């Protein structure tokens, strides 16, 4: 039996990290498309405001994704309200700006609890329900899962772990015949408040690593995967190019990366306090205070339409062969 994904207007969608950034944009877009949406985060006041804004088809559950029991309770809340879960989106995440040797252990462990175990807990809570609905399990990782990142090394390590977990889980579910579509979304730098919310031990104000894209592009990729089975989607061609460069030219990348990392900090500004590592902070915003994201990614648009791209490529090849053949005939004549 294979996954059978419903149109968005017929879906029940659970989104973690829904009180800001990518999660908030995705929730608003899903609700606008007619989906029932359960918002999950630690910030009850923000969740209540957002759910009221979205109307009767939205509800919320307060949960720290690092707490498996709380995540299970959130899943139960969705089922109690609507009878099922069709799509689950693991999106909650935090970050730290610091050299790895200067990263406080409690902060490092907290980041792993949220970013990695938050994904694990979401998957374990969601899979029994998604197997019944033949739905979609979507996890937001990052392009830094594919490359090292000085100053944001703890974040990169957590996202690499998320990628390995999700890819291994997909294999196991497929081998067991579990009808769940498993998608990994890997954004490039995205204009969200994650840098504003970060713990910062290098001074200045944390910035989103460039090139920076709009959160709507990630939300569109997530909702596309909710209705069309996708293995993996990278959002932002700039980030994909960086990852390929790191893979194929590792020694050069290692020399250039510390220079590039200077663009992750604005030394003229001060980091907002407190961070959201241990408690919610300044929720309710989709975008950062200091970045502006690109509204278009041709790479991501092409990746979401592989058949169209393949058709264009085949057509181009055919035209090229015809032109070559015509040229050859003229020469023979």
Mean pLDDT: 92
Name the overall outline: globular
Span from first to last CA? 59 Å
Tell me the radius of gyration.
21 Å
How many discrete domains?
A: 2
How many DSSP helices?
10
Q: Which strand order does the major sheet show? A: 3-2-1-4-6-7-12
CATH class of the largest domain: Alpha Beta
- State the helicity in percent bands: 40-55%
Oligomer: single chain
Which fold name corresponds to the CATH topology of the largest domain? Rossmann fold
Largest sheet: 7 strands, parallel
In percent terms, what proportion of residues is strand?
A: 5-15%
Query: Which stretches are low in confidence, meaning pLDDT under 50 for 5 or more residues running?
Result: none
> How would you classify the helix and strand content by structural class?
alpha/beta
The CATH homologous superfamily of the largest domain? NAD(P)-binding Rossmann-like Domain
Describe the structure.
The protein is α/β, with parallel strands linked by helices and 333 residues long. The chain folds into two domains: 8-296, NAD(P)-binding Rossmann-like Domain (Rossmann fold, 3-Layer(aba) Sandwich); 306-333. 48% of the residues lie in helices and 14% in strands. It is built from ten helices and 13 strands. The strands form four sheets. It has a seven-stranded parallel beta sheet with strand order 3-2-1-4-6-7-12, with helices on both faces. The protein has a two-stranded parallel sheet with strand order 5-9. The radius of gyration is 21 Å and the shape is globular. The mean pLDDT is 92. Residues 11-179 form the Ketoreductase domain. It comes from Sphingomonas guangdongensis. One of its GO terms (molecular function) is oxidoreductase activity. Residues 270-291 are annotated as: Disordered.
């Amino acid at each position: 039996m294979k996954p059978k994904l419903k149109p968005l207007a017929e879906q029940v969608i659970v989104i973690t990290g829904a009180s800001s950034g990518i999660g908030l944009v995705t929730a608003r877009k899903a609700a606008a498309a007619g989906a029932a949406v359960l918002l999950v985060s630690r910030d009850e006041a923000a969740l209540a405001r957002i759910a009221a804004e979205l109307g009767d088809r939205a509800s919320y559950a307060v949960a720290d994704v690092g707490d498996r029991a709380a995540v299970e309770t959130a899943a139960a809340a969705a089922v109690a309200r609507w009878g099922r879960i069709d799509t689950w989106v693991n999106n909650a995440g935090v970050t730290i700006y610091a050299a790895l040797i200067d990263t406080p252990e409690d902060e490092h462990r907290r980041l792993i609890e949220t970013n990695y175990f938050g994904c694990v807990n979401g998957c374990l809570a969601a899979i029994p329900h998604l197997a019944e609905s033949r739905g979609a399990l979507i996890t937001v990782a990052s392009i830094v899962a594919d490359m090292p990142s000085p100053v944001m090394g703890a974040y990169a390590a957590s996202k690499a772990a998320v990628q390995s977990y999700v890819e291994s889980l997909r294999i196991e579910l497929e081998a067991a015949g579990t009808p769940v579509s498993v998608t990994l979304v890997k954004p490039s730098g995205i204009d969200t408040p994650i840098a504003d919310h970060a713990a910062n031990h290098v001074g200045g104000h944390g910035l989103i690593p460039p090139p920076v894209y709009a959160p709507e592009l990630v939300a569109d990729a997530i909702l596309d995967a909710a209705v069309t089975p996708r293995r993996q989607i990278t959002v932002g061609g700039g980030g994909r190019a960086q990852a390929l460069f790191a893979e194929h030219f590792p020694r050069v990348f290692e020399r250039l990366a510390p220079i590039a990392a200077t663009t992750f900090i604005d030394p003229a500004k001060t980091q907002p306090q407190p961070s959201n590592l241990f408690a919610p902070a300044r929720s309710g915003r989709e975008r950062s205070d200091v970045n502006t994201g690109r509204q278009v990614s041709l790479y991501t648009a092409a990746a979401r339409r592989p058949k169209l791209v393949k058709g264009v490529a085949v057509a181009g090849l055919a035209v090229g062969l015809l032109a070559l053949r015509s040229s050859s005939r003229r020469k023979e004549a």
